[in-house]
């Protein structure tokens, strides 16, 4: 039967049939997905093109952990994202690209052209020594070549590791070395608002520490003068002229690695989250089609950067596997002014807009005049992702942007989950401000207390875990499986632990309240407190530091650093700037503390543990009730910290 359906899938693109049509339909599918997950996902997966059908839909245990979806199935994700659309929608736009500058013409790339360019660049990668299983680092701005590079890796079975363009040379080097990448794909520079950022120079700095890298392929964007090292570096534009546009897709096993994406956790070193081909394809596409209720011919605009998981799943893979038109925007929401998103919506008649609460709050703060007069009538669905959305931002988004006519899907998920897990389905689920609402089919959330005991019923809060695998669950952390087990599967037995706190209201709706671990969510970006502390501590004269998050009007959370310096460090203003420069160099500008308070000591317990609870309270401005401080080694430091709070 698999074979027969597979033949059908080859002829047609059935992905649109995946959609849930009503709330009753959702309830039925949800029930089915819990009672018989293998049949449920098996049916969904048949809507894709598999070269060979799988033999076993799911095998799993959360102890090792080991999760295998669609075992024995053979496929290539780019055949699903590109080849199978050629007959039916070859001339339809696959990618619409909007430049950083509104004066530069936008570009439209049809499925046919995208297919050709991906094949060509895949041949360039091969020409430069790339083979199936190699790791390739991509460090690029939001230009079509970034999506092309990602897909070209997938075409030949190389594992891409995209590093967000805002990371420092040191961060790039750490990621390249962790994955032992042999090729880097980058550009001369990047345009970002009125700034020009020298990406190639940053890569050059990184590569001093990266002996595994043999080739650097550089695409031209800014025409910034660059150094091109003979024998190592080459130009994208020259290389593509030397290869053919014919590149048969590598046959991949369903469980072969598709990509690595680094993300921050409680510890100092970012983890390489690994996703595999089959499950990731099925889940990212299924959730794309459902959550946004994408309809044939619509234009989907996800404002994330492809350097984050949201861009991977909902700019590149999900939309393209569904044959959608995906809009890629190179710039920032406030350039040339705070009306840029709305100009883009009007210009390209965007139907689905998927953005982050931090962007909404920021644009809201500029005033409604940037929205007024813009034709937003094409919009059908609005999405939110990355952090909890507060009611005020939700209401503004709903009224000013959606004009009360567009459902808002508040999508909760993580780098590790590969796709959206808890979210309304547009026009199907009744929404509620600040609630991610209900789990999608196949997702089985559970709230537990500190001891891992299930908190049942409604009107309760706890730590959010998932008790059954979905197709795009994290498979491992690259090169260190034990770390994956420890981080996600050891806190609570037989559960995937998300790191998020959550409440379930009287209607059974979920509201994610934020991280319960030492991760700060700054403008939707995950930053580990330990990572920032390590960076600060590298600065000459710094003795010790402690970093916590605090509520920030625009960013959601800001970074508050308490720093102890050696006695002789005098000029605090300059030291503050030096520390910012240090963090920028070690991690990148996104990790710069918003506030730095110099202190002479940190509140520590007798066993030497920093009591972060106290530091968090002070950073929040809530100094009245610091709770029990009796276990502190030296309670007097608390008074000093309170007195100097910023
Ligand atoms: C997709 C993405 C994951 C963390 C996650 C949570 C927070 C994401 C959210 C949300 C509340 C939402 N988060 N979406 N919190 N409501 N709709 O953002 O992945 O960068 O790995 O961040 O972001 O705390 O644990 P990632």
CATH architecture of the domain at 519-643: 2-Layer Sandwich
Percentage of β-strand residues:
15-25%
Instruction: State the strand order across the main sheet.
Output: 12-11-8-6-7-14-15-23
Low-confidence parts, pLDDT < 50 over ≥5 residues? 1-13
Number of strands: 30
The named CATH superfamily of the domain at 519-643: ANL, C-terminal domain
Largest sheet: 8 strands, mixed
Mean pLDDT: 95
Stated plainly, the CATH topology of the domain at 519-643 is called GMP Synthetase, Chain A, domain 3
Instruction: Note the gap between the termini.
Output: 66 Å
Shape estimate: globular
Summarize the structure.
The protein has 20 helices and 30 strands. Helix 8 crosses helix 9.
Describe this protein's structure:
It is a single chain. This protein is of the alpha/beta class. It has a domain at about 520-645: GMP Synthetase, Chain A, domain 3 (2-Layer Sandwich). The chain is built from 20 helices and 30 strands. It has an 8-stranded mixed β-sheet with strand order 12-11-8-6-7-14-15-23, sandwiched between helices. Strands 5-4-17-16-18-19-20 form a 7-stranded mixed β-sheet, with helices on both faces. Ligand 6R9 binds near residues 499 and 526. Ligand 6R9 binds near residues 512 and 514. This is Acetate--CoA ligase. It comes from Flectobacillus roseus. Its EC number is 6.2.1.1.
